[in-house]
Write a structure and sequence with these properties.
333 residues, alpha+beta, six-stranded mixed β-sheet, 15 strands
Length: 333
């Protein structure tokens, strides 16, 4: 029952040292906790990186320079075996916000001198007592909106600093009942099968099979959050299906559950053709890819809450809209 406790403690120790390190100590912490062949996936503009030093220089040191006195404020922490590869690999996932004083411009986003929150989710694969692979998704558009920059049309859902679970029980530091984990994973898999089998838009009766009436879908900035099944379909699922065509599911790299929580990420999960309107974009005959993370909380026999991360900057970049570069040019005028 406690088979993942060493992995959890490894990641907790890593976070404790990383979050207090500065300068070249960030490199040293990464090297201490990661394998020699460490592979890291990051959202646009970071992309795939190989090795601890590359990750420190590309992401952590610039971010920590901009967000001073950083705190990691976790809402979900869980571990498990990857259902995608038959349980061969073991993963630890954390989700929450990286908070600090936004005192220096980051990625061309103007600093505010105030508290800033970078919403994040991170999957770490553990092998032989080291972190051998990481996928880090973060909501850069949310930081832009906090700084008063509106790079996209008005979103269909609500924007706010995303809360954690309503039940405040997402930090699974202690061992969880494997039977509960299996129930959660089976429900997530059933929901995915329903969604993929219906071209990624489920009618209300199908949604009702796996989702509570008062479900909450915490989408990324640019799309926003929705509350209740009805508003989820109206404010996200409908616009998504109306603005995107020929949607194909590519599968996931990692999917697991622990206790009443679970989730997955893909690279990329979906391929599609924009048919006009989604995120204000015109129609295109070009195939574009979407990288997505979903984290879930199960309540009884249905899903109650869902936190979503999408690499929207990469999605837009494929269609010729470099949002960060466009923002830099606008702010220089």
């Amino acid at each position: 029952m406690g088979e993942f406790q060493d992995n959890k403690q490894l990641v907790r120790n890593y976070y404790e040292e990383l979050d207090t390190a500065t300068g070249s100590d960030i490199n040293r912490v990464l090297m201490r906790y990661t394998s020699d062949d460490y592979f890291w996936r990051g959202m646009h503009p970071f992309y795939e990186q190989q090795g601890a030093d590359a990750v420190a220089e590309i992401f952590w040191k610039p971010f920590r320079s901009s967000f001073r006195y950083m705190q990691r404020r976790m809402d979900v922490f869980m571990a498990g075996r990857n259902d995608i590869d038959g349980g061969r690999t073991e993963w630890v996932c954390s989700m929450g916000h990286l908070m600090g004083l936004f005192d220096k411009d980051w990625l061309g986003i103007p600093s505010t001198g105030k508290m800033g929150f970078l919403r994040y989710v991170e999957f770490n694969r553990i092998a032989a007592g080291k972190i051998s692979e990481t996928a880090l998704f973060c909501d850069i558009i949310s930081v832009m909106k906090q700084a008063g920059v509106e790079p996209l049309p008005v979103q269909t859902g609500a924007f706010f600093i995303t809360p954690g679970p309503r039940t405040h029980d997402g930090l699974l530091y202690e061992p969880q009942d494997p039977a509960e984990s299996a129930r959660t994973l089976n429900l997530i898999n059933r929901m995915i099968d329903d969604l993929v089998g219906s071209d990624l838009e489920s009618p209300q009766d199908e949604l009702a099979d796996t989702w509570h009436d008062d479900m909450i879908w915490f989408g990324p900035a640019g799309i926003g959050a929705t509350y209740t099944r009805e508003r989820y379909q109206e404010q996200h699922q409908g616009p998504f299906s109306d603005g995107l065509d020929d949607i194909r599911f590519n599968g996931h790299i990692c999917r697991f559950a622990e206790g009443r929580y679970g989730g997955f990420f893909g690279w990329s999960n979906l391929t599609m053709k924009p048919c006009g309107g989604f995120l204000g974009l015109p129609a295109s005959n070009k195939d574009v890819h979407m990288r997505v993370v979903d984290i879930y909380r199960r309540d009884g026999g249905k899903l109650a809450e869902n936190w979503i991360f999408i690499d929207l900057l990469y999605f837009l970049m494929q269609q010729g809209d470099d949002v960060l570069d466009r923002t830099r040019h606008i702010l220089r005028r």
